[in-house]
Amino acid sequence: MNLSYDVKLWEIKRNQSSKAPSYVVRWAVGRKEKSRSFRTKALAESFLSDLRQAAKRGEAFDVGTCLPLSMLQAKKSTNFYTFALAYVDMKWPHAAAKTRDSMTDALSTVIPALVDQDATDRPDAGVMRSALRQYALSPATRDVPQPPEIKEALTWLDKRSLPIEQLAKPRLVRLGLDALTLRLDGTAAAATTIARKRSVFYNTLQYAVDLEELPSNPIDKVKAWKPPKVREVVDRRVVVNPRQASELLNAVTYVGLVKRGRHLKAFFACLYYAGLRPAEALALRESDCELPESGWGLLLLAKSKPQSNKRWTDSGDGHDDRGLKHRAEDEGRPVPIPPLLVAILRDHIKEFGVNDDGRLFRTLRGGIISIGTYCEAWKAARNFALTPDQVASPMAARPYDLRHAAVSLWLNAGVAPPDIADRAGHSVDVLLKVYAKCIDGGTDIANRRIGSALDE
């Protein structure tokens, strides 16, 4: 095999010569050029991204096929089980911890379903899931000593997994789709879980299409199977008004022993007054804050610390160290903050100081505050601040609902959607789609306009 690290990638171009829309990915390894056409631009971008990531991590490319070694490994796979392992290997180096968790979770559901249906001596479902999640799918745990039942389950899967070419048949792919709808105990899975796992399954099969192991994605041909609808809009019942938010923040200071509640007030205030995601607030440092003695301040967000199982992080820590969501790796996000939040943060720094690395919010030992800790404090604060009926309702049920309340407040204040999207860190399309039902007065305005038209 002739290998090379001399890789050149070009931007995607629309194929002008074909009648149906298609998009071409062109790249070169050494002096050999290669191209591949895709039906949609999204598919072309996905394939080009895989090539770029392989080149970025210093992977060698085969001059004969112009493919990186990780893709060649996938092409050599004889069944879906080994193909899935190769797919994980390709995605793993640049995937966030939560993505790794989600990917292995979905594949642990699908792989046991795509096996020879006449096979006997099928291992216990729980054992197969443990074998995949804890040993086989994560590259870091494949060489860990395996208990006999784990080794037997993986050997069985390797022998009984369907050949990858057979997955071109929609009836076989449906076995995997049907498996996504059930939990391990046989009860129905949540709509969001099904949608998340289906996305992983679809992308895995699309990778087989990219490598020309399948002619097209067979999931597109399964017409009778429809995933359940997922709520994509914010329930306006979770949104609190400024008075309620203020009462909740004050109630947080009554929670816990020593100074835990008072320490968390500023954390929750960042979610409401600046619209930060919890993981963004956990990464906030003093150097990221412009806090004048009067007037508006500014947060210059740079990092995020999402929580995940230690098994999925490169560092072995419970929190990943990532860039901002929907941003390039080193791209920051400026967020103007009102004088009220400026005062809260100044008081927080004065009372608690900052961690050695400059972080504003941390545990007593300087660690990252866990989801369980701040959610427990929030639950207690709701009991202090809200009426029994409100506590039983969805109102501000999760700390993340403070971010929803912030964006809803900005929309109803008449702030331009592009400005809100910049502050919140997502696109205008997502903003208007997700928060459409949280905009006040829309029904009254529509009724007046329709009434005026009828009176003409």
From TrEMBL:
Keywords assigned by UniProt, alphabetized: DNA recombination
Return the Basic and acidic residues bias intervals.
311-331
Q: Has UniProt tagged this entry with the keyword Lipid metabolism?
A: no
Specify the domain of life of the species encoding this protein.
Bacteria
Q: Name one GO biological process term.
A: DNA recombination
Q: Which PANTHER family match?
A: PHAGE INTEGRASE-RELATED, PROPHAGE INTEGRASE INTD-RELATED
Record's protein name: Integrase
Q: Please report the organism this UniProt entry assigns to the protein.
A: Acrocarpospora corrugata
